[in-house]
Amino acid sequence: MADKSVRSEHLGTIPNLEREFPREFSLELFKRANFSHLFERKVAKAWDKKLFSIPIYLSLGTEYNAAALSLCCKDWRIFGQHRAHSIYLSFGGRPESLRDELLGLPTGCSGGMSGSNAIQGKEIKMYGHSGLMGEQVPIACGAAYASRKPVLTICGDASVEEDYIYPSLGWAATEKLPIVFICEDNDLSILTKVDVRRSWSPAEVAKSMGIHAVDITDDPWLIAHHVQSMSKNLPGFINIRSVRVLWHSGTGIDGTPEWDRYKITNEKLKALGLETEMVRIEAENTEKVNQIWDPVLGER
Amino acid sequence: MSLTVAETIQQLTREHLEERNGLLLGQCVSAVGWIGGTVPDCRGKGIVEIPMTDVAGPAFAVGCALEGRRPIFVVRYQGFMWYNASSLVNYAARSKAVWGVPCPVFIRSIGMEGNGIGHTASSCLHSIFMHPPGLPVAAPMTPKEYREVWDWFTSHDDPIYVSEHRKSFQMNIEMPSQISANSKITILGISAGRLNAIEAVKNLKARGIECDLLHALWLKPFKITDELVNSIKKTGVGLVIDSDFEITGASRSIAYELMHATGCPVHALGLRDDACGVAPRLENITPSPLVIESKILELISGKK
């Protein structure tokens, strides 16, 4: 059952798990999440300056989800949906191409055809999304079946309710497809909460089909731990309790986020003794992001 | 002995699966009858029995197409395309235009009618697939036509909607145009409408009324041939006959194009705007030879 009481920043955590990962892993986590964070802040600024003529779905709040997945799923095929800027960036998509896509330029990652909600990156095997929520999941299953190569597919707590999902989980279980299903669960379908919409848990549904499934918070080391663990016996399903910092679309804020994973994780990284490197990395990322965005924002 | 359409489909499919690493996906495709004998018995070599999901199923095929396996996706009744359509139209058909990524799926959408199959499963639905961009639509009825459509698919990287009709499966002959200097009207047939049109034209000829009869294989893009234009200009009136609904359907769309190309009135005759019942008296299926004859007589009497 979907139990609202389990929704917390601590769900499924393993004490001191971050200390079991190599230092390089944690630094790379920060590098990717920090870059996404800085990039998205610039996108938000550009939005507030009304530089976009399209809806923008910012991934602030889930930067570390994307960073963790990108470190565990190297060279995997990726099928996401909207709110995937951090996925694109963490997996190595060209940030300039994403910027240009948001601006509707021919040099965008889809030449201006897909915008924020359907981004793709051929160079990172990230496929576009049609806009039909959840459709990426069965398409990902088809790609996994046809290629027998590992596939990552990401949906949200709303799209996991779509008709596409149940048969996809079933087919993946039956065919033992090499696929990891991620449900990035921010508890909101636009603004309607999960417990208003359903009484069941997608992780329990996946388990009932024989899929190894967990329901956890958005701690990046925890995500990495489970992806690495289940990758030995796919398919797998992870419901990640996440927080959407801003509105469904645009930069509005409804209130204080339930928790701030970006800040929590950065504190943990500092506690690991990585602060000096973090300062250096952030300076480098800031310089890169400024180079990408400041000419557009008129800040240089 | 020439191959039938069913045998042609089976042969092309076998080659695709066994020699070109292709896939065929569908529900119950290896069940009794193997879909009218069109699916080869090479299970384990590319035949994928998918679960009973008309929403996710086509998306499985789309994923296979993105991986270059050029899947054949089989839908046993065209009426089921109402819920099979989403990923084929919104992803496969647009993938190349939006993301520059080809997504070639060969959509076998099988029309049938009569025998009490009712209002959802009955008849063809190719017209709705002519609306969205990126999806060519063909309705082959003969072995040669089917091979032409298949050859097109294998030499392009687009998806294609193939509106099949069960009545074609045992066909082993071609359907050439019938042109006569004394024809009073030009008939253009689509899908099973072609078979009934042949019958109607034959009956009228026995009564001394000549008609030109031509056949449409490609519905989108629709090719306006010199033969078609010359015939309509000669007879002064045309009639397009289809196995799909007439309102906003292929028959009216093509008639519209032909009117602009010829300056002559071109009419449409397809399914009525009624639900199809299961009792024979309540069926709404491809216009019968008698209905076609009646329509032709009405049109040539006033040349309207």
Summarize the structure.
Chain A is an alpha/beta fold. Chain A is built from eleven helices and eight strands. Chain A has one domain (4-12, 21-294): Thiamin diphosphate (ThDP)-binding fold, Pyr/PP domains (Rossmann fold), CATH 3.40.50.
Task: Describe the 3D structure.
- The complex is a heterodimer of chains A (about 300) and B (about 300).
- Chain A is an alpha/beta fold and about 300 residues long.
- Chain A has helices at about 25-50, 65-70, 85-90, 95-100, 135-145, 165-175, 195, 200-210, 220-230, 260-270, 275-295, and strands at about 75-80, 125, 150-155, 180-185, 190, 190-195, 210-215, 235-240.
- Chain A has a single domain (about 5-10, about 20-295), classed as Thiamin diphosphate (ThDP)-binding fold, Pyr/PP domains (Rossmann fold, 3-Layer(aba) Sandwich), CATH 3.40.50.970.
- Chain A has eleven helices and eight strands.
- Chain B has about 300 residues and is an alpha/beta fold.
- Helix content of chain B is about 40%, strand content about 15%.
- Chain B is globular and about 60 Å long.
- The mean pLDDT of chain B is about 95.
CATH level 3 topology of the largest domain in chain B: Rossmann fold
Low-confidence stretches of chain A: none
The biggest sheet of chain A, with number of strands, parallel, antiparallel or mixed sense and barrel status, is: 6 strands, parallel
CATH superfamily of chain A: Thiamin diphosphate (ThDP)-binding fold, Pyr/PP domains
> Major sheet of chain A: order of its strands?
2-1-3-4-8-7
- Helices of chain B, by number, come to 12
Bin the helical content of chain B: 25-40%
CATH architecture classification of the largest domain in chain B: 3-Layer(aba) Sandwich
CATH architecture annotation name of chain A: 3-Layer(aba) Sandwich
Overall mean pLDDT of chain A: 95
Total count of strands of chain A: 8
Question: If you compute it from the alpha carbons, what radius of gyration of chain A comes out, rounded to the nearest whole angstrom?
Answer: 18 Å
Main-sheet strand order of chain B equals: 2-1-3-4-6-5-9
Shape of chain B: globular
Number of domains of chain B: 2
